[in-house]
Amino acid sequence: MKSGKFIWVFSFLLVITLGLSACAGDGERDEGANETGADAGSASGGDLTIAIGSDVVTLSPHGANDIPSSNVHENIYETLTVMDENGEIGPGLAEEWEEVDGTTWDFHLREGVTFHDGAELTADVVKMNFDRLMDEAIGSPRAFLVEAVESVEVQDDYTVRFNLKYPYSPLLAHLAHNGTSIMSPNVIEEDYAQMEEGGDVDAHINQNPVGTGPFKFEEWTPGESVVVTRYEDYWGENAKLGSATFKVVEEQSTRLAELETGTSDVAAAVGPDNISRVEGMANANLLQEPSISLSYIGFNTQKEPFDDKRVRQAVSMAVDKDEIIEGVYNGVGTPAPRPLAPSVFGYDDSVEGLEYDPEQAQELLAEAGYEDGFETTIWTNDSEQRVDTAVTVQSQLADIGIDVEIEELEWGAYLERTANGEHDMFVLGWSNSTADADYGMYPLFHSSQQGDPGNRSFIDNQELDELLEQARQETDPEARQELYSQAQELLVEQAPMIYVHHKEFLLGVDDSVKDFGIDVQGHYQIKDAYIEQ
């Protein structure tokens, strides 16, 4: 296959510790699923209910960059390439591809693929999708994924060409990100039509999401649930489940109660302090897997007093991250002295972060003119761990004279208002969906990505911008690594955020659920899942 020659050049740097997608049920993948009555395409796979902590923000893959939405997108839509459990790039909707030259790539599409509304997948449809993703009128927070793309051309019915502005190492990995998912041409046309009549971007798509994935959209009741059902005309092997419901259950205690009583089959976002509760359930087991995500505490670098890097450094030194990891996360997870997880390309363990040092913190505050401290706010959504993190930070900063008020917001409002820059400090996380430093750093720290795309600290540093731009254009792995090492050193000095830890995913799964998994990005793997009767 042509694509075999062009597997992402950096995949060899992604070590096995990226982690295999874990499977829950009996703890091992059941290779005999088809013999147990969960035969692909049959109705015996069951109806899976996943209790999630936050509602989705949008059903458009171009509309938001959050995990709850992405978990639904993953099942409705598909991408040109896919990343496997070893970090290698393989065929998705594109069967094969070839690098024509350093800035030109041709992708050859699968034939016979249909969308849930009957439309056919063609090169024209792929071009329409990427033109929309890059359309400034759409303003997609995921447009950074294809920032290197100059244009997309149709070569023939099933061949599409990507013309790049410059050689771009993460291209194949970015085309595996669900932000580049392919939607039906019909819903794209309808969405543009309603926009011309004064409607909001994505308004039609949110009501009618249509992709080529193994599940099709059934219903979204905002604040309550999203339901998807098996797509019987799927081009590949059919899903085993008849349907899946992503049910919004904000309170962790309620999610666990639903798991225990069998009301829900999966309880997402189990707190570390509830591990023993799940392990003690007679009908369920704990799914615990590492991630390459980052938990962090961010500063709005455009607002006083956090526009002074000395203040940011001081607060960073006054926060005891070990206390947060032990007290809030019960010791579950890996400390994060820098933004990248160890298995992500670009990681450099020689870069030393700011150590816990309250005395030095007070000296820096005095130097910045805040020897008596100041008043500020820290925002969080209604995640229990994030609220507890905010409470811990509030207590620790009081020791150096900083009076912190905690504000808790609903998830959608939280994302919108932090994207608008209304906050002072905030608690959030970032999932590195490509296992590459470009995705782990560019959207979080490049000045062009301020707001919704990821840069909610609003850092604007020309030297950092240049390093991140050079690194994404560099094709030599060693040279790229050096650029990312320099960028991480600069981030220590600029201190736009406090890197807390790389968490582990904790979910409760009913014993009857087989082959349910979660990947290192935090996406639920349900295509092969089924409920044992």
Structural write-up:
With 533 residues, the protein is of the alpha+beta class. It folds into two domains: 2-243 and 505-531, D-Maltodextrin-Binding Protein, domain 2 (3-Layer(aba) Sandwich), CATH 3.40.190.10; 293-502, Roll (Dipeptide-binding Protein, domain 3). The chain is built from 15 helices and 24 strands. The strands form six sheets. It has a seven-stranded mixed sheet with strand order 9-10-11-2-12-20-13, with helices on both faces. β16, α11 (384-398) and β17 form a beta-alpha-beta unit.
Round the Cα radius of gyration to an integer and report it.
23 Å
Total helical elements = 15
Q: Judging by the overall fold, what is the CATH architecture of the largest domain?
A: 3-Layer(aba) Sandwich
CATH superfamily assignment of the largest domain? Periplasmic binding protein-like II
> How many structural domains?
2
The CATH topology name of the largest domain reads D-Maltodextrin-Binding Protein, domain 2
Strands of the biggest beta sheet: in what spatial order? 9-10-11-2-12-20-13
Q: What percent of residues are in strands? A: 15-25%
**What is the terminal separation in angstroms?**
40 Å
